[in-house]
Amino acid sequence: MSLFAADFSQSYEKNGLSQEMIQIFQQIIWDYYNSHPREFPWRVTRNPYHIFISEWMLQQTQTSSVVPKYKEFISKLPTFSDLANTSMDEVVKLWQGLGYNRRAIWMKSAAESIVREYNGTLPKDPDHLEKIKGIGHATAREMVTFAYNIPTVFIETNIRRVFLHLFFHNKNQVKDTEILSLVGQTVDITNPREWYYALMDYGVMLKKTLQPDPNRRSYHYKKQPKFEGSNRELRGKILRLKITNPEITNITISQKLKSPLEKINELVTKMEEEGFFEKSLKTTSE
DNA sequence: ATCCAGATTA
DNA sequence: TAATCAGGAT
Of A25, A99, A143, A175, which has the highest C-beta tally within 10 A? Predict the structure, then answer.
C-alpha cells in the first residue's frame, strides 16, 4: 500500500507534477470518497451562516464534538443578526464544552461586523474574511468554498497528511508553502466543495491507517503543551464557576493576569476542596 | 500523552 | 520563530 506512495513520491521528486499524476491523484481521492464519504450536518446545508458557525467550531476541535454543539447553536441563534444581537455571556454559555473559548468571542464580533459592513451576507472574497479577527488563511477559504462552492486553495491537518503521504513520502521538514502549491495544482475545480470533503476524508483515513502520523514530518509540526495545571485549565474552571454561580461574578479575569493568577488559583483550590465544582456541575448538567 | 477540519501575539 | 488559547476525545 505505502509502496505505491513511495513510488508516487519518487516520481514527483524526479519529474515534477505531470498531468498524468494529477489525474491519478484525483482518481485515488474520488474513488475513496465515493465509497467512504463521511456525513455531517454542515455538509448538507448551503446556508452560509451555518457554514460560518461550523468553521469556527471546527478549528482545533474534533468533528464528533462539534456535531451536537453546531445543531444547538444554529437552532437557538439561526441568523447572523441573532448572533450579533445576543449578549457575549449568552454566546459563551452556548459555546461551553468546545474549549478555546476566545473563538466564541471573536465569532460573535465577526457576526457583528458582517451585519454592519456586509449587510448580513457572508463575503465571497477570502481576503475580506481574513481581515476579521480569528479568521485566518484556512478558515477564510473553507468558508468561501463550502458556502459558495468557489475554488480556493487552503491546507489543514487532514489535507497536509494526504500530501505528505503521497507526494513527500520520504522527505522531512516539509513546508506548507510547498504543499499549498500542490493543493492549488490538483484541486478539482469542477466541484471544489466535494473535492475538499474528499481530500479531508482521505486524510482522516490515513490517520487511522498510518503509524506514525505523516504530519510529524511537517516543518510546522509541534507538540502541544500540557493542559493539566495550565492557565487554560484554570480559566475553564473559573468559567464554569461564573456560569453556575452568577453571584460570584466579581472575579473578573483579564487576558494578561500574572499575580492575580495565584490568588485565583488559591480560591479555586479551596473551592475544589469544598466540593464546589462537583455540586455546581451536577446542577447545571440537567 | 497527543491531537483535534487554527489563529493570534510577542 | 515560540508560546498561548475560559476543553475534550482517543
Answer: A143
**Average of per-residue pLDDT values in chain A:** 89
The reply to whether A253 Cβ lies less than 7 angstroms from strand C is: yes
> Domains of chain A (ranges plus CATH)?
2-35+152-217 (1.10.1670), 41-148 (1.10.340.30), 231-274 (1.10.10)
Q: With a 7 Å cutoff on the CB, does A98 touch strand C?
A: yes
The pLDDT of A129-150, averaged and rounded, is 98
Whole-prediction pTM:
0.90
- Distance CA A81 to C1' C6 in A: 24
For residue A128 the three cell numbers come to 475580506
Rounded, the Å distance between the CA of A258 and C1' of C1 is 24
pLDDT above 50 (res A280): no
**Under 8 Å CB-to-CB from A33, ≥6 apart: which residues?**
A194, A197, A198, A201, A202
Answer whether residue A239 shows pLDDT above 70.
Answer: yes
Sequence-separated (6 or more) residues with CB below 8 Å from residue A102: A134
CA atoms within 13 A on the CB side of A152: 23
Alpha helices in chain A (DSSP H): 2-15, 19-35, 41-44, 48-58, 63-76, 80-84, 88-95, 102-117, 126-130, 137-148, 157-166, 176-186, 192-209, 231-244, 259-273, 276-284
A39, A55, A112, A194: the active-site residue: A55
**Annotated catalytic residue A262:** no
Nucleotide with minimal C1' distance from the CA of A228 is C7
Phi, psi of A18 (to 5 degrees): -95, 165
